[in-house]
Amino acid sequence: MDVMERIDQQVKNHPVVLFMKGTPQFPMCGFSSRAAEALKRCGEDFAYVNVLADPEVFENLPRYADWPTFPQLYIDGELVGGCDITLEMYQNGELEKAVKAAIARRSGAA
């Protein structure tokens, strides 16, 4: 399986996935840290991919959805955006609604 297929599987197999530098527990950049913290505050589990631990993903993810920077947040298989968009959505309440709705849809379909 090539790297684009692996990225696609991560995006489609998880209702919420954050491609970030480091992990939610040990973020390796400020933007990834803030995005992960906003997601944690939504009160739901989310998947993550440490792009620093997978150089192929680090190199190819920007081509996947034509988004050049990290972190990248996907909800329901769609790119939401990076740190700024994630924080803006968190502050206006949209992030928690989107995360909870995606997880509810996925668990209802299971």
Keywords:
4-stranded mixed beta sheet; 4 strands; 15% strand; Glutaredoxin; alpha+beta; 52% helix; 110 residues
Account of the 3D structure:
This protein has helices at about 5-15, 30-40, 55-65, 85-90, 95-110, and strands at about 15-20, 45-50, 70-75, 80. By secondary structure, the protein is of the alpha+beta class. Helix 1 crosses helix 3. A four-stranded mixed sheet has the order 2-1-3-4. The chain has one domain (about 5-95): Glutaredoxin, CATH 3.40.30.10. It is globular and about 35 Å long. The two termini are about 25 Å apart. The protein is built from five helices and four strands, in the order αβαβαββαα. GO terms for molecular function: 2 iron, 2 sulfur cluster binding; disulfide oxidoreductase activity; metal ion binding. InterPro entries: Glutaredoxin, GRX_PICOT-like, Monothiol_GRX, Monothiol_GRX-rel, Thioredoxin-like_sf.
Uncertain runs are none
Q: Spell out the CATH superfamily.
A: Glutaredoxin
Percent range for helical residues? 40-55%
- The counted number of beta strands is 4
End-to-end distance, in Å?
Answer: 25 Å
Order of helices and strands: HEHEHEEHH
Give the mean pLDDT.
96
What Rg, in angstroms, do the CA atoms define? 13 Å
So what's the overall shape?
globular
Strand percentage lies at: 15-25%
What's the total helix number?
5
Instruction: Please state the second-level CATH architecture.
Output: 3-Layer(aba) Sandwich
CATH fold category name:
Glutaredoxin
Strand order of the largest sheet: 2-1-3-4
Q: What is the domain tally?
A: 1
Organism: Acidihalobacter prosperus
Pfam family, one: Glutaredoxin
Binding site for [2Fe-2S] cluster: 29
Protein name: Glutaredoxin
